[in-house]
Design brief:
CATH topology: Cytochrome C3
Strand order of the largest sheet: 1-2
Strand content: 5-15%
Largest sheet: 2 strands, antiparallel
Number of strands: 4
Number of domains: 1
Radius of gyration: 20 Å
Distance between the termini: 81 Å
Structural class: mainly alpha
Length: 164
């Protein structure tokens, strides 16, 4: 058992050890537009020296640092799942998700969606640590993605204007 001390009363939890985490994680939530991202989890565990809370926020049992979240989750403790998708919705503005928000939309209205959570967390750290930050350094677009985003062979042709 691990006891954490903060300004709030202590939280008792049994945190997962970093060595129990998977070596690699496939991020494949948007495989219709992008090829899966093969995330080298063990490399990131080494970089953070086993401090899972660097990426997984307070879900690992560490105290909540975001004052907005702390209003309700200051003593939440460790969660059963630390997967980003279990807290951050894939489609942040879908009718299904919006119906789950507390009434009258006072809380969780500003929680970023899954794509935003990945980009804020991952890209922010990559900028600081001089890691890859270019879109296609992490994401290879599928043909369907190129068609959807009108890029590559699906990019609009620029017609030359003729002057008469």
């Amino acid at each position: 058992m691990l006891t954490l001390f903060a300004l709030a009363p202590p939280v008792v939890c049994s945190a997962m050890d970093a060595e129990d985490a998977p070596d690699d994680v496939d991020i494949d939530i948007m495989v219709n537009l992008y090829k899966k991202v093969e995330f080298p989890h063990s490399v990131h565990v080494d970089i953070t020296e086993g401090d899972c809370s660097v990426c997984h926020h307070h879900t690992t049992g560490t105290p909540v640092t975001d004052p907005n979240c702390a209003r309700c989750h200051a003593n939440s403790g460790e969660q059963e799942s630390v997967a980003c998708r279990d807290c951050h919705p894939l489609n942040r503005f879908s009718q299904e998700y919006l119906k789950t928000l507390d009434k009258p939309l006072l809380y969780h209205i500003n929680k970023v969606g899954l794509k935003g959570a990945y980009h804020l967390n991952c890209r922010g750290c990559h900028v600081k640590m001089d890691g890859p930050i270019g879109c296609e350094e992490c994401h290879a677009m599928t043909d369907a993605g190129k068609k959807f985003y009108h890029t590559g062979k699906y990019a609009p042709m620029h017609k030359k204007k003729r002057h008469h």
